[in-house]
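Can't attach files on this board, so I'm pasting raw text. These are the components:
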Amino acid sequence: MTVERIGWIRALTAHPSTELKTLAGQLAEGCELRLTSLPQAGLGLLTLTDGAFHEPYYLGEFPLSSCAIELTRPDGRKAAGGAQVMADDAELARSLAILDAVLAAQLPGWERVSALVEAGAQKRAAEDGRRAAILAATRVDFTMLNTAGDGGDED
Amino acid sequence: MGYVAIKGGGRAIAGAAAVTECLRTEEGLWNDSAEPLGIDAILHQLRYLVDRVVSEGGVYHPQFAALAIKQSLGDTLEAAFALRAWRSTRPRLCATPALDTSRMRLIRRISAAFKEIPGGQMLGPTPDYALRLLRLELLDESPQAFRRVAREWLADCPEAQLPETFPKVLDALRAEGLLPPVSDHRGQTPFDITREPLIFPVPRSAQLSTMARAETGSLLALAYSNMRGYGDIHPTVAELRVGYLPVMLPHPVTGELTEAGEVLMTECEVVAMYEADTGSKPVFTVGYGACFGHNEVKAISMAILDRALQKGAKDGASNPSEDAEFVLLHVDGVDSMGFASHYKMPHYVTFQSDMDRLRTTQQKSGASA
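---
Top answer:
Structure tokens for the assembled complex are below.
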């Protein structure tokens, strides 16, 4: 497992939500599921630090779903999991919380979650790679301008 | 004409909605292969339109913004209104801790102040240096050619090794002592414009939030007045960046900050004419602008107005763009569009009253003439 827990949501949400819900449903089968924080969908408020004076302000809102659970296996093993995800889908948050619990405590089936996390991380890395390509392809080389005797346009 | 009660309009109103829907779909009348606009197509091919709606709607939900654009037939004000209507039905779950935008995953970063900035300048996607001429070949773009473009571009790109984050130009200027010190209000809870009314004077956090979800054209018009002469300032863009900011929230179990998703945003920092107050060290003035999505005109306009409002607060407003009440109460698209649109609604009683008063005045003036 190469991805730390703080990156699991980003990696897992690279997959379709139906896939995550299906797996969570399979892994929670036969377990006792206690909701320590009810699944809910709503909004989060994005707080930023402004670049000029470093004052906090709210840029706006974003859809947010959250859930926290406790999973108890038939053999008595317990695991706590939780998720806050940028989505308007409480069921997705519940499923992610289950996957989080299974993976964190390495309950039976954790290898399947781990594989999903790794595959998702690869998808995200490819996305990051596309963004890096945008930057690399449009990097300005001012040394060429200087060589050509052009100091750049100014008004 | 006497007072006309509003009755019997229900059928007409339902008919108006049906006609609008008919217009949206009328291509189907003559084109058997007509297809509805897909949300994905709007998200990707009309991305700046989506960015505008998420920003002016004040909620980062690109998919619903695209839906709003679709149902409003591309009217940005109506789309932003629909998005805000949706957000008003949702509970507020939490606020993030104050996030640092230097962690943005950039796709564009430029400076008009320095050629060489730490990490370099990257133009990213921009029409700034292209000819603004119609590309007539797109009139008949084939699906095959359309699908090839991005694939071929990516295939030709060498693998890039770049840092994940880039330092800010303003930090370097501040380290040199050329900028005012950072604020004493860093620990304060920001003003929430969605919960509290603007009663002036309002803190700067309220000004920033209001402008962040302002209508782009309104913000530009007021900033343009400042640029043209009602402010006499030529700001310099220290840095303009566009990228994806990771949204970090505490994990419900461990409490550790965890990435819940990311938002595309634009941020601009401007510096302008230095100030030399008696007895203090002269420094540049600074302005800050930011918004959801990729919208550079909006971020630059906001930064210019932020600087203007600071000047107005300090020295008194010498023009409209330095007056917080004037700026903040006139830049919201949903507010202003609502007020403009309400004039179309029945005013039969008030207008009847106007006519009565005019007739009476005419009779009196006729009698006295």
